[in-house]
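Re: [ENG-882] Designed sequences occasionally contain unexpected residues at chain ends

Forwarding the minimal case from QA. Structure tokens:
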């Protein structure tokens, strides 16, 4: 009660922080009139002036207002877009090395130009990290107009580039790229043999777009560079044939932690099957000599009982392709480790690739902690503020919206079965389509998006499906998602980094139709008609209620649900959102309280009846928090183990760089030799001891083993006045 009262009087910590930034925003705004009168050449000249001031020792914070005002004016001239005050606040937050939480449609991409330009003036480079190649390329070309106008160079790293192209991109003032490409380049650089082969330069500042996706969702998946190991593909196929025959009582499955283990009965059955197939030659399955066989059995079990086709992976062109659980996108080129991918290939009957061994690896947590300064942008970070602070020392700041959000978020509707839920969703979609209200339906898996598509086909409702199978048509489908009466069914692909505009995407329509016009004289009239047509469509969509976002299931992360909701109500547009759930949903079934089921039974819910109650929403939120907490513990545990390896990784990588940079490695070898020798003598010649107490045999054995030197240690020890320092000098 007291806390609520204090917040009313003094405001929240977030509001107080935003208030402190007002003088900076005022300083930028004061320059607006003067900068708008500058000729292009004078505005461009600002970059060289700023660089000179930085060289003379002036702090970046001192030139922040002028630099931001310069970028603001450059964006107005090159893009026709001017930063709002809230976007200036977002830019200041990023420059300070914090996370800027900005709602959908608030222009995060434009915000990044402010701190990127300011920090690039040092000449040390800025990395802007995106979640996929498409966004990296789009943003580098789009925002690149601003940087190039001001005399800075822009690079973009995408899949398939050679080392020369990568080096050129990294040497640019501002470099766009995905977290995967940047991380893999770091690992590859540390496997090179000459400094001339290196592509990256020392890290300086990273701005991570969709920071929660990259630093939290992806944190459990380390980046791994692999090389081929021994071929055991036949064994995967043979074990798979046996595991297929097991029944439910042969194993224990825990869906909460995604694990499966054989029961005692199951172990006996598998042993009999393995002996029958001549795979188990002697002893029991869990005997030490059969550890490799146990590994194959466990992975085959996982493949059949934990991993689901069209949810965790799909089969495309006779290959098993991973589907990202958070974005719904295919992760082509990525493979599950420890033989799991081979087990899935055996399960699906496609060619089993040779198993790989790890040559280099790093987690995103440790990769991004290599940057002296890091900042992030997203629409949903506040629910994970604790983790950002604990792991990355990053504070989250909620940036106010430029226009208040008009979206109406409806209460969840909960049904007993999936069938009842899908029926209710179909009825709502049909009504929206009839009223010309655009609809975006979010599903959790490819399979569920296609099942809903079949239901709508039977109801004669025209619609588009966007999932990993049809990712090539993504831009086209999203461009039409805001058209009056359109229905788009999508997996998590449409939940992040996607801008659904009411009336459809005007820029894409102009681009496609104007480029198709044969005569230049026709273009002005055509453009006018397109703009008028779009204006009418936009008004129709808004009058119908704006985009209606329907969630068919709750994700285990509240952020993913919020991302989906956030597709509607952009920049003050009207809109609605609602989630439909059933007791058969994964989250409800695995993590939901048993009390929920009991309560529904007591209420006597009949078929096709839904329950809508705040208590239910609280129970769901509690379940989601429970899962988020568990996932945080997994990530913390992963980091704890990787931190040990990270210290070793840093030492080895630093030594490699020193060796590559040296003209001769004599000094390095001598230094290493001296360190090893000092270690030997410290172990076998303790301080304040007499020669007769020294372990001369051990010293002799170690110098012979490590240095291949057969030295008369025994004779030296008997010499009068002998000391540890004398022996060290003689061995060296």
């Amino acid at each position: 009660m007291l806390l609520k009262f204090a917040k009313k009087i003094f405001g929240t910590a977030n509001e107080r922080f935003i208030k402190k930034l007002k003088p900076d925003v005022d300083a930028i705004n004061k320059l607006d009139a003067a900068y708008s009168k500058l000729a292009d050449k004078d505005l461009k000249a600002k970059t060289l002036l700023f660089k000179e001031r930085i060289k003379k020792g002036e702090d970046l914070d001192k030139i922040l207002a002028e630099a931001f005002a310069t970028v603001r004016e450059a964006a107005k001239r090159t893009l026709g877009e001017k930063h709002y005050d809230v976007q200036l606040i977002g830019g200041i937050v990023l420059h300070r090395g914090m996370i800027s939480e900005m709602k959908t449609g608030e222009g995060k991409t434009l915000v990044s130009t402010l701190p990127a330009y300011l920090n690039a003036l040092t000449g040390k480079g800025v990395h802007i990290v995106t979640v996929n190649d498409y966004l990296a390329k789009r943003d580098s070309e789009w925002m690149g107009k601003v940087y190039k106008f001001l005399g800075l160079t822009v690079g973009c790293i995408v899949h398939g580039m050679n080392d020369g192209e990568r080096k050129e991109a990294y040497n640019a003032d501002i470099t766009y790229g995905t977290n995967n490409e940047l991380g893999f380049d770091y690992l590859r650089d540390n496997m090179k043999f000459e400094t001339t082969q290196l592509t990256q330069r020392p890290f300086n500042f990273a701005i991570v777009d969709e920071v929660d996706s990259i630093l939290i969702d992806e944190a459990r998946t380390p980046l791994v560079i692999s090389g081929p190991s021994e071929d055991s593909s036949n064994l995967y196929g043979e074990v798979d044939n046996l595991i297929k025959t097991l029944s439910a009582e042969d194993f224990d499955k825990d869906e909460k932690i995604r694990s499966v283990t054989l029961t005692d009965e199951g172990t006996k059955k598998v042993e009999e099957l393995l002996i029958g197939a001549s795979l188990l030659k002697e002893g029991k399955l869990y005997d030490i000599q059969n550890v490799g066989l146990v590994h194959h059995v466990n992975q085959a079990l996982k493949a059949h009982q934990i991993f689901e086709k069209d949810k965790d992976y799909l089969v495309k062109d006779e290959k098993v392709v991973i589907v990202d659980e958070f974005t719904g996108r295919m992760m082509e080129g990525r493979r599950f480790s420890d033989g799991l991918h081979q087990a899935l290939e055996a399960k699906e009957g496609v060619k089993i690739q040779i198993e790989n061994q790890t040559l280099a690896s790093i987690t995103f947590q440790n990769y991004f902690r290599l940057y002296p300064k890091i900042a992030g942008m997203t629409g949903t970070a506040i629910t994970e503020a604790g983790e950002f602070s604990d792991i990355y020392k990053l504070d989250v700041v909620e940036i106010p919206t430029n226009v208040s959000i008009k979206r109406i978020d409806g209460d969840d509707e909960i049904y007993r079965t999936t069938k009842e839920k899908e029926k209710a969703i179909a009825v709502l979609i049909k009504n929206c389509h009839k009223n010309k209200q655009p609809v975006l339906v979010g599903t959790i898996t490819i399979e569920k998006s296609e099942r809903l598509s079949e239901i709508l086909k039977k109801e004669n409702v025209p619609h588009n499906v966007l999932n990993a199978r049809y990712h090539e048509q993504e831009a086209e489908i999203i461009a039409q998602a805001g058209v009056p009466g359109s229905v788009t069914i999508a997996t998590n692909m449409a939940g992040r980094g996607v801008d659904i505009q009411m009336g459809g995407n005007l820029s894409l329509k102009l681009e496609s139709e104007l480029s198709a016009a044969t005569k230049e004289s026709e273009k002005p009239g055509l453009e006018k008609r397109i703009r008028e047509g779009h204006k009418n469509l936009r008004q129709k969509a808004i009058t119908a209620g704006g985009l209606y976002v329907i969630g068919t299931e709750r994700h285990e992360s509240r952020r993913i649900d919020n991302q989906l909701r956030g597709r509607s109500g952009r920049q003050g547009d009207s809109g609605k959102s609602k989630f439909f759930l059933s007791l058969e949903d994964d989250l409800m079934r695995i993590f939901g309280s048993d009390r929920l089921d009991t309560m529904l039974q007591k209420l006597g819910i009949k078929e096709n009846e839904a329950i809508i109650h705040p208590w239910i929403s609280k129970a769901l939120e509690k379940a989601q928090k429970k899962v988020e907490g568990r996932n945080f513990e997994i990530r913390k545990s992963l980091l704890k183990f990787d931190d040990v390896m990270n210290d070793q990784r840093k030492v080895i990588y630093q030594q490699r760089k020193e060796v590559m940079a040296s003209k001769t490695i004599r000094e390095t070898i001598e230094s290493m030799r001296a360190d090893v020798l000092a270690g030997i003598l410290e172990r076998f010649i303790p301080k304040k001891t007499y020669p007769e107490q020294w372990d001369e045999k051990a010293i002799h054995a170690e110098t012979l083993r490590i240095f291949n030197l057969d030295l008369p240690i025994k004779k030296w020890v008997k010499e009068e006045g002998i000391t540890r320092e004398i022996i060290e000098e003689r061995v060296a």
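QA comment: On inspection the terminal residues look reasonable. Confidence is low (pLDDT under 50) at residues 1-6. Proposing we downgrade this to a documentation issue.
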